[in-house]
Design goal:
four-stranded antiparallel beta sheet
């Protein structure tokens, strides 16, 4: 079955960086569109970044220029490099595959 496992979250100071990873299995990763979302309690899950099978990327305006999504098809993994982090980036971050499958999430907290 499809599995998505996120990692790399944690506590970081404002202005710092984190790199999230999402390891996947159970589907043909190389042809799948992958996305990152985030969610804070009481709010809807928010799209952050997506990457297609050709490597074409798109981003939410709130993270454009600070976050970079990438993929490694050999490892069936997608990554989210987050730079210049702000307190408002604090959320649970989720990996999504094929607009259908979700991981369990990894918590990112930006605080001094």
């Amino acid at each position: 079955q499809v599995q998505l496992v996120e990692s790399g979250g944690g506590l970081v100071q404002p202005g710092g960086s984190l790199r999230l990873s999402c390891a996947s299995s159970g589907f043909t990763f190389a042809s799948a569109r992958m996305r990152w979302y985030r969610q804070v309690p009481g709010k809807e899950r928010e799209f952050i970044a997506g990457i297609g099978s050709t490597g074409l990327r798109n981003y939410a305006d709130s993270v454009k220029g600070r976050f970079t999504i990438s993929r490694d098809n050999a490892k069936s993994s997608v990554y989210l490099q987050m730079n210049s982090l702000k307190p408002e980036d604090t959320a649970m971050y989720y990996c999504n595959a094929l607009a259908t499958y979700w991981g369990q999430g990894t918590q990112v907290t930006v605080s001094s």
